[in-house]
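Help! Submission page says 'invalid entity' but I think these are all valid:
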Amino acid sequence: MRAARKSEDDLHLNRRSFLRVSTAAAGGLLVSLYLDFPGQAQEGGRPARIYPPDAFVHIKPDGKIVITVNRLEFGQGVQTSLPMILADEMDADWSQVIGELAPAADVYKDPVFGIQMVGGSGSIAHSFQQYRELGARTRALLVAAAADRWHVSPASCRTEASVVYGPDKKSARYAELADEAAHRPVPEKVSLKSPNEFRLIGKRVRRLDSAAKCNGSQRFGLDLDLPGMKVALIAHPPVFGARAKTVSDKEARAIEGVRDVFEISLTRGTGVAVVADRFWQAKQGRDRLQIDWDLSGVEQPDTSQLRSKYQELSRTQGNVAVARGDEKALDQIAAGNRISAEYEFPYLAHAPMEPLNATVRFDGDRAEAWVPSQFQTMDQMAIGEVLGLKPEQVTFHTEFAGGGFGRRAVIDAHVPREAAAIAKRFRGTPVKLIWSREDDVRGGYYRPMHAHRVEVGLGPDGMPAAWRHVIVGQSLVAGTPFAAMLIKNGVDATTVEGAADTSYDIPNFHVTAHNPTVNVPVLWWRSVGHTHNAFVMETLIDELATRARVDPIDYRRKLLKPEARKLRAALDLLAEKIAPGRGKLAKGHALGISCHESFDTAVACAADVSIENRRPRIHRVTVALHCGLAVNPLTVESQFQAGIGFGVTQLMARGAITFKDGRVEQRNFDGYTPPYIVDAPAIVEVYIVPSTEPPTGCGEPPVPVISPAVVNALARLTGKRYRSLPLATL
Amino acid sequence: MATYQLNVNGQSKRVDVDPSTPLLWVLREELKMTGTKYGCGISACGACTVHLDGIATRSCVVPVSLIGDRPIVTIEAMANDTIGRVVQEAWLDKDVVQCGYCQSGQIMSAVALLKATPKPTDTNIEESMGGNLCRCATYVRIREAIKSAAQQLK
């Protein structure tokens, strides 16, 4: 049990602003709209915002504590870990805590990014302090209410498991105090626990959403069922940007349950919407549409042509991302000590398990939307724009999502836009737009295709002395509001991340990039630029280690920059954990090593791999990582175990989206095939470097390390180097 | 439209739908049982797995007209199934789920596996679970949970 903090006596009450609290008949702290604070203090150039507890905590009369999660839950576990942080500081009874996803509202914006979103592995990193302070403020309000009631000093009170204890064996449950607490001014300053006082943070806590996800009761966006709801599908153009020239919809309209068929504008070209009572009716209707598409003036991408074009571009210098040391140093190194390598990476679809969807009801002067969204702010604005409403006139519910991996964070918000355009014609009727799996696989917004060309010159010690690297791939943000933030010197930072900012100390280091324009919509795909850049860096470094006849872990440790201390700690921990088994690999197996830092989390990886049926078989993966304080080590472990499996997507034989005559050649999971159980590692051991530093993200950092580790193992088995993905038959 | 009398989780349910309608959409949209998920529509991902006459079946490709009186069992009935309950508990104990969208199908396949093979080997698991896609790739914990459930059922 924890004694009351002395500093509570010094609580600085904010007299400028009292929370706007309304008390419900049932009582309890109410969720209400954010009340903006005037005259916010500046901290590090950014306003230090005080978040109102009543927008995040609702203590119900029965003792249940509903904690609002300012993020989408789509597997990463924030619906558990953010409430853990708040509940810990609040001393809430964890068994009574419920995590609820926030609707779109200003108060729920990411404190760093300034929009409501999930991305950049920032949920915990950006909201750790925020949720701790919210918990501490809520606790302070409850303690103050109890102290007032008992005419004692708050300092004489302590809290545990949703109860305030005072002198003379006085006690009061949080639920009893909630009303009084809600009417008190929110303290501006609060003291936070020291790490040794944590009851939840740092503990392996099971997910709050497991039971509902194991018994079928968890509702996802696609499961939404509203009275009178209609279901819509859209026939999208076969080439991005094409327009419907003639539409024959007689057969479609003849399907029972089909209510309307009409052309709609898309963000690229036009489409034909089919609206029906049920999905199957809409699908049958869509299947029977006869559409003649106008392809005039529409660029028709072709993978083999793009490949040649990219390869050619990679042989010329692009815009400079980093230029360190002497650009000519490479040319002075003897040919025998130089390596030149060309890499290719395909377009990749995210293909989250739950197909994309959005439900919108338009009521004339307002609208309501239900979207499994990673980008609530953008999606809400887009729906408003289509319907001629202000964002705040669109009540926006964040629905649980069946995965996303970036696919639900779309700058142009095309899916909610389409849903809104359809709903506009059905005033008062909710319309659920569903993208079928075929729509998803063929619908664009892919991880871009890339080509890399790297020339490395070795020093007499076998370490890289000069490195000249050209990266070719579409920009993710050119022409969008994100460009100002992310494009510098003509280079999209997401194209070069993980290469230009490498953790390796290479004296003469030059990375340039070309961002060509191609008629294929592209998007961030879990770990973004690190997907291909880590592959290039980690396979090449491994090749150099082999060439130098140095152990691959030792070689990396020797090459790391002094400031790469997180990565060094991860590599050290990995070396320690794999040491006992390293000499005892089964016959036909090899160990592949990689390490990479992304989103401020450092990861070192060892993959035990053999070849079966001419494909890699990943038997065991060992991962060591440094993510600062691991808020929920169980979640961190799960994210890494599964994130490693997700990363295997890149290695799959059918892990590529390709184009012929402008059309996507794949259709569904039969043509674009993510990893199944047999493709993913059977065992993933996860070790976390102990740390009390601020927590960093764990959603994306698992992904980049696995593909290079696996092909580095393959290289040991076959003596070949693998520089083209998807991985060809071995 | 045609009328069908279906046996779902031991209850008789009447539906009026087009004969080509897949069982998946009958469950989801007519019977409002949304625990069974749509993932691909071509039996390539297993998110729609139910037990049809005791066999793990992809409900997205079975037209309602072909079902007849064969019993249909869905995720919603697993809490009342001896093996189903043990599998669900193992899933909770091992904290398997992430996004959770595929897990109804994973659990239905796992229950079918354990009903036929009480002590599954890794190969048995890979064969029976081989068509159930988990895009989060929670496969390590799925394996652990199946083995743990098998232990419990001994």
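Support: the input was valid. A stray whitespace character was the problem, and the output above is from the cleaned input. The mean pLDDT of chain B is 98.
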